[in-house]
Structures are given as structure tokens and as C-alpha cells.
């Protein structure tokens, strides 16, 4: 047994050496992301593919492979397959779930692969070389600050939240902290599952329940679409602002057009995957050390800077 | 409410002028809920709110009328929510591809295509179930995944929206418009229910549906083409889903991968609350309509009242549905 294992190891070792010799010519970056199953992940897939094309064109010595996976277990198989097949010099991963992906990614790291984690962290942060994420608390906080400013710190708000998750909790927490100490009052807050149909119903009910609403915040743009239809149907004119969050292109278009009810937007951009791929590629081209943690802010998108966040070709 | 049109093949109603409690139970449950809602918040009984609720329940009501046929014949269709999303997505793509002319003709043609897709989807469910002799639960669980994946594929994971704003403006009144003060979706579901009640209670096909659901072997020995009847119930279901989509698309003008999520469970719940047994053999079209309304009213009351925290709404909704069923059962025993 032992001798055959040694032989195998020797063979594998020599193969690996050969592989490394070839790979020095061309560096491989594997990108592993969830398959598109709703607007935001569809945006991630779009931006990952766009980044792959752009980097291949700009740097002939870098190869980018994008793999999408519909579930956490499929994602584990996908990265193991790439590692076992052609190998990789860097892995950029947006994990389906932190728990299930942590140890498979650690194994790949142990082979000397550079690990970039995006958006959702692994349970062991020592595995990552680079971590890049958006700021969900800022999504709520930036929106709240805008409303405090524009409504003069006084008024009645209603809020639609998504699905009970950390993302949702953080956005709501950021918003509540943002209006703390002012006379802005949240009349009501309900779950609408990040779904436009559910948001339409909840907004109709809010309108029936409260005779005077100054502003409505839906913590995601899909829900905002339903909210806007319900407002349009009711014919109510006292609502000064209806705001969303995430950076869906239909809403960015409204901001660009100077819509009076939706004049701003706060991003949690799917393009963060692109930022991460570019940063990872930088070290293979120029000598640009990039280890660390990057937090993309959620700045206010206004008519002036909306172009920066507008991707007309993206599905999101 | 007379009981003449609500009788079942298995258990004909006794003659006379007594109100059939079995049939009336869901309507009584709805009446109790309405009183409860009015006591909690006076806004609940405002005309605007009641019209909103009535209009919103149209999709589930229309789909559930189709489900009444499938369930009455002893089948089950879990694919209706995904099917609705798929038909909505396809219909919008058809409209987007028909050029820039915003006219009633474009919409009418798209509607016909949507109905055709619905019938085809239903036919597929029916044929696989009857010709392939597979449990409908498994078949429609499979097509549920297929239709959902197709809409995600068509949308590339994002949303499919009507591009032409003028066309949207032409189509919009189909959800938001009214005729003589009654919202169009309400008229549509009343018409669908009336036609469905006629088919189920007054035609030979309707009697065959109930016979097949009541006892398949007896029906077969009586010369009823069991497979064909079963298949046709799925086609009826598919057409009903398509009709619901015709009213759904003008509301938001878009279909997304989350469109119609869990509608199948709501439709089945509406059918059962309405008094149709899941084991088949009975079908109560008007009861189903009432069941769909009860589901929507419960959700509306939850948001309008301040009694329940947003975290517990699901639990209270579930409890109300179970209590409504228990009340119904106890009335049936007395009947």
C-alpha cells in the first residue's frame, strides 16, 4: 500500500510540476458564483462574464473561467472539479452559504491558490487573502439620512422589508439608526419577500390604513416597483418620496430622469464581483499587493453620478 | 344561496328549502371574518379597501377555479404558480417582439397566444399523468421545476418587462379599470366561475369529472373515458392559469423569477376551504371563489390591524385558516 501511494504521489507530483511550468505562461483565475435565480444574482453573472471578457482582452497572460452553480453542494463540486482539472492560481468566490463552502475553499487555499471572497464571508476569515463586500447597513443609513434631510427631520414613514435574513436585518438596522433622534416616525413595517406582487398588496394596505404618509422605503428595488404601482392607483399625492435600494437599472433610469418621487438610490451593486476580479487580476499583471478587506460604500446615487451605476445591458 | 347548483354526484342534496350548511359554511366563515375585520379597523370596510382586496384575489380565484376541476377529478396540479410565471414571461416577450405599434390588436393576439400556451402546458401535464400513468403529484412537481426554470432562462435571471410604455398604457385598464364601478378583474373571475359552474354542473363532461373523482373503476365500467376526462381537467386548469395571467400582466407589466411563487399552495388551499375534498368526487366552484377571498381577507386584516408583530403574521394566518376549517367541519356534522 505504502509503496503504491508513494509512486502515485511521485507521478502526481511530476504532473503537477509540469502543470506549474505551463501555468507560468498563463495565470488562471477561477470565478465561482451562484447561478442567476433572481435579479441581483443575474447581475452578478452578467458582471462576472463581462469582467472575464475584458480581462482576457486586456491581459493575454490571464485566463478567467466563470462557473455558476445553482446550490451550495453544486458550488463545492464546481470548484473541486476546476482544482482537479486544469488547476487555478486564484479563486474568486461568492459563496452560496458560509458553512458549506468554508472547508472546500480551505483545501484549495492549501494548494497555494490565492483566495478572494466576495459579499458573503466564510466562517473562517483567515482563509481569504482578499475580502470584498458591500455595506448593507449603509444602504439603510444613507437612505434614512436623505429622508431626515429632505423632510426636515419630521414625518410619517412606512417601510417594506424583504425576507428574514442578515441582509434584511442590517438594512433595517441602518435605517432605524439613521432616523434615531429625529421626529421621523415609522408608522408600520411589513415583510414583502423582496417580491413586487407582495409589495403591491402591502402598499395598498398601508394606504388604506394610514391617511397621511410622507415617505415610503422599500429596502429593495423589486419591491419599489410594486409600491409605485399601488401609489399610482390610489391617486394619493401627499407621499413625497418612495425610495428603494440595490441599484436596479429601471430605478437608476428614474434617478437619471430626475423623478421627483424617486430622486435617489442607494447601491448594493452586483458589479462588486467585477471589482473583485479586477483586483485579483492586478497582482498577476503588475506587482500590486492587494491582501486585505475592502468594503464598498453605499453612497447616495443622484442624477449627477447615476451614470456610474447604470448598466443598460445588464438584466438587473 | 340555493344549493341546486352545488350538489355533487356522490351525495345529491335533499330536496326542500333548507339551506345546505355544507355549501354555506365557507360563506359564513367569510362573513365572520368581515365582521372581525370591521371591528379591528374601521378602514377595513371602506369601499376602497374592499375593492382592492376583491381585485387582488382575482389571480388565485381564477387559478383555483381550474384547480377545482383537477381536484374534483381526483388529480392535483402543483405547477400552476410556475406556469403562471412562464405564461406571463412568454406573453410579454411576444408583445415586445411585435414591433412599435401600440394597439388593441397586439394585445388581443398576445392574449390568444397566452391562452394557447396555457392550454398546451395543461395538456402536457394531463398527458404525462394519464398516458404515462404517473402520480400527478410527481408529474406536476416536475413541470413546476421546468416552467420555473424556463422563465428564469427567458429572463436571464432578471425580469421581463413590457418595453413599450404606450402599449402598457393601453393594457393597464384590464387590471386597474372598472365597468359600472366594478373592477374588471372581478368581472373576469365572476365570468370564469359562472362558466366553470355551468360546465361542472350542467354538462356531461362536468358529470364525468365528478364521477371519475368519485370512483375511477366505477366510472370506467360505466363507459366514461377516464383518461380523456382527466387530461381535459388539466387543460381547463392551464386555460384558467392563462386567464389569470391576462389580468396579472397589466398590473406591474413585468414577470420575474419570483412571479407566482407558492400560488399553487394558495390555490389548493382556496379549493379546500371552499368545501371541495382533496380526495376528489366533489367540486364547489362558488365555494372555491369564497376560499380565495378568505385567504386574501386574512392577509389584509393582518396588515390593517396592529395586533400582531410582523414576525408572527404567518402563524396567525395559518391559525385562522385552520380555525375556519374546524368551524366548517362542525357545521357539516350538524347538517
Could you characterize the architecture of this molecule?
The complex is a heterodimer of chains A (316) and B (335). With 316 residues, chain A is α/β, with parallel strands linked by helices. Chain A has two domains: 25-134 and 270-285, Rossmann fold, CATH 3.40.50.2300; 136-256, Response regulator (Rossmann fold, 3-Layer(aba) Sandwich). Chain A has ten helices and ten strands. Chain A has helices spanning 2-23, 39-58, 72-84, 98-110, 136-150, 166-179, 196-209, 221-234, 249-256, 272-285; strands at residues 27-34, 62-69, 90-93, 114-118, 130-133, 154-161, 183-191, 215-218, 241-243, 292-295. Chain A has a six-stranded parallel β-sheet with strand order 2-1-3-4-5-10, sandwiched between helices. Chain A has a four-stranded parallel β-sheet with strand order 7-6-8-9, with helices on both faces. In chain A, α2 links the parallel β1 and β2 (62-69). Chain A is elongated, with a radius of gyration of 23 Å. In chain A, 48% of the residues are buried. Chain B has 335 residues and is an all-alpha fold. Helices cover 70% and strands 2% of the residues of chain B. Chain B has helices at residues 21-40, 47-56, 58-72, 80-97, 104-130, 136-154, 165-171, 173-176, 184-202, 204-214, 216-221, 226-252, 263-273, 285-304, 313-334, and strands at residues 160-161, 178-179, 182-183, 254-255. In chain B, strands 1-4 form a two-stranded antiparallel ribbon. In chain B, strands 2-3 form a two-stranded antiparallel sheet. In chain B, α4 packs across α12. The longest helix of chain B has 27 residues, at 104-130. Chain B is globular and about 60 Å long. The chains are: A alpha/beta (316), B mainly alpha (335).
**The CATH topology of the largest domain in chain A, please?**
Rossmann fold
Distance, first to last CA of chain B = 15 Å
What is the ordering of alpha helices and beta strands of chain A?
HEHEHEHEEHEHEHEHEHHE
> What value does the average pLDDT of chain B take?
89
Number of helices of chain A: 10
Number of domains of chain B: 1
Shape assignment of chain A: elongated
Low-pLDDT stretches of chain B: 1-16
Query: Number of helical segments of chain B?
Result: 15
Largest interface: A-B, 39 and 31 residues
Radius of gyration of chain A: 23 Å
Largest sheet of chain B, described in full? 2 strands, antiparallel
Estimated radius of gyration of chain B? 20 Å
Strand content of chain A is: 15-25%
Write down the CATH class of chain B: Mainly Alpha
- Name the poorly predicted regions of chain A: 10-23
Please name the CATH architecture of the largest domain in chain A. Answer: 3-Layer(aba) Sandwich
Q: How many strand segments of chain B? A: 4
Amino acid at each position: 500500500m505504502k509503496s503504491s501511494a508513494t509512486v502515485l504521489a511521485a507521478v502526481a507530483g511530476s504532473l503537477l510540476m509540469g502543470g506549474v511550468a505551463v501555468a507560468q505562461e498563463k495565470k488562471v483565475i477561477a470565478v465561482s458564483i451562484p447561478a442567476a435565480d433572481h435579479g441581483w444574482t443575474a447581475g452578478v453573472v452578467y458582471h462576472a462574464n463581462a469582467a472575464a471578457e475584458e480581462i482576457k482582452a486586456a491581459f493575454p497572460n490571464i485566463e478567467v473561467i466563470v462557473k455558476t452553480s445553482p446550490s451550495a453542494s453544486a458550488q463545492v463540486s464546481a470548484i473541486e472539479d476546476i482544482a482537479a482539472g486544469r488547476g487555478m492560481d486564484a479563486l474568486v468566490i461568492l459563496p452560496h452559504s458560509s458553512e458549506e463552502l468554508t472547508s472546500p475553499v480551505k483545501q484549495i487555499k492549501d494548494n497555494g491558490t490565492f483566495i478572494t471572497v466576495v459579499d458573503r464571508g466564510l466562517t473562517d476569515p483567515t482563509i481569504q487573502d482578499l475580502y470584498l463586500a458591500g455595506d448593507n447597513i449603509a444602504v439603510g443609513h444613507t437612505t434614512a439620512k436623505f429622508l431626515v434631510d429632505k423632510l426636515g427631520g419630521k414625518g410619517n414613514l412606512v417601510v417594506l422589508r424583504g425576507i428574514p435574513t442578515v441582509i434584511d436585518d442590517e438594512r433595517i438596522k441602518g435605517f432605524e439608526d439613521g432616523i434615531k433622534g429625529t421626529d421621523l416616525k415609522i408608522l408600520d413595517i411589513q415583510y414583502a419577500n423582496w417580491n413586487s406582487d407582495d409589495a403591491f398588496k402591502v402598499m395598498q394596505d398601508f394606504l388604506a390604513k394610514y391617511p397621511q404618509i410622507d415617505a415610503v422605503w422599500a429596502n429593495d428595488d423589486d419591491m419599489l416597483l410594486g409600491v409605485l404601482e399601488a401609489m399610482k392607483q390610489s391617486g394619493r399625492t401627499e407621499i413625497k418620496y418612495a425610495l428603494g435600494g440595490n441599484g436596479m437599472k429601471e430605478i437608476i433610469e428614474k434617478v437619471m430622469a430626475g423623478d421627483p418621487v424617486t430622486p435617489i438610490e442607494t447601491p448594493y451593486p452586483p458589479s462588486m464581483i467585477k471589482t473583485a476580479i479586477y483586483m485579483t487580476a492586478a497582482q498577476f499583471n503588475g506587482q500590486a499587493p492587494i491582501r486585505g478587506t475592502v468594503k464598498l460604500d453605499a453612497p447616495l446615487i443622484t442624477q449627477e453620478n447615476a451614470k456610474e451605476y447604470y448598466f443598460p445591458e445588464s438584466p438587473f | 344561496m340555493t344549493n341546486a347548483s352545488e350538489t355533487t354526484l356522490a351525495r345529491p342534496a335533499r330536496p326542500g328549502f333548507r339551506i345546505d350548511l355544507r355549501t354555506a359554511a365557507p360563506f359564513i366563515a367569510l362573513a365572520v371574518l368581515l365582521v372581525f375585520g370591521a371591528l379591528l379597523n374601521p378602514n377595513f370596510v371602506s369601499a376602497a379597501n374592499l375593492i382592492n382586496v376583491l381585485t387582488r384575489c382575482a389571480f388565485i380565484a381564477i387559478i383555483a377555479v381550474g384547480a377545482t376541476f383537477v381536484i374534483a377529478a381526483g388529480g392535483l396540479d402543483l405547477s400552476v404558480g410556475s406556469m403562471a410565471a412562464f405564461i406571463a414571461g412568454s406573453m410579454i416577450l411576444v408583445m415586445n417582439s411585435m414591433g412599435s405599434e401600440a394597439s388593441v390588436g397586439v394585445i388581443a393576439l398576445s392574449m390568444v397566444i397566452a391562452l394557447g400556451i396555457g392550454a398546451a402546458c395543461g395538456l402536457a401535464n394531463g398527458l404525462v399523468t394519464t398516458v404515462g400513468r404517473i402520480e400527478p403529484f410527481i408529474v406536476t412537481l416536475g413541470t413546476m421545476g421546468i416552467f420555473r426554470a424556463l422563465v428564469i432562462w427567458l429572463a436571464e435571471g432578471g425580469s421581463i418587462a413590457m418595453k413599450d410604455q404606450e402599449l402598457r398604457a393601453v393594457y393597464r385598464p384590464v387590471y386597474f379599470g372598472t365597468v359600472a364601478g366594478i373592477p374588471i378583474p372581478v368581472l373576469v373571475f365572476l365570468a370564469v366561475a359562472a362558466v366553470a359552474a355551468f360546465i361542472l354542473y350542467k354538462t356531461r363532461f362536468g358529470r364525468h369529472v365528478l364521477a371519475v373523482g368519485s370512483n375511477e373503476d366505477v366510472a370506467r365500467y360505466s363507459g366514461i373515458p377516464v383518461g380523456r376526462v382527466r387530461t381535459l381537467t388539466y387543460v381547463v386548469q392551464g386555460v384558467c392559469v392563462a386567464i389569470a395571467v391576462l389580468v396579472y400582466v397589466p398590473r406591474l407589466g413585468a414577470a420575474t423569477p419570483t412571479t407566482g411563487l407558492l400560488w399553487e399552495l394558495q390555490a389548493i388551499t382556496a379549493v379546500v376551504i371552499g368545501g371541495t375534498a382533496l380526495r376528489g368526487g366533489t367540486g364547489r366552484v362558488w365555494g372555491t371563489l369564497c376560499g380565495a377571498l378568505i385567504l386574501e381577507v386574512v392577509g389584509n386584516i393582518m396588515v390593517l390591524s396592529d395586533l400582531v408583530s410582523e414576525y408572527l403574521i404567518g402563524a396567525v394566518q395559518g391559525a385562522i385558516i385552520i380555525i375556519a376549517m374546524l368551524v366548517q367541519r362542525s357545521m357539516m356534522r350538524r347538517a
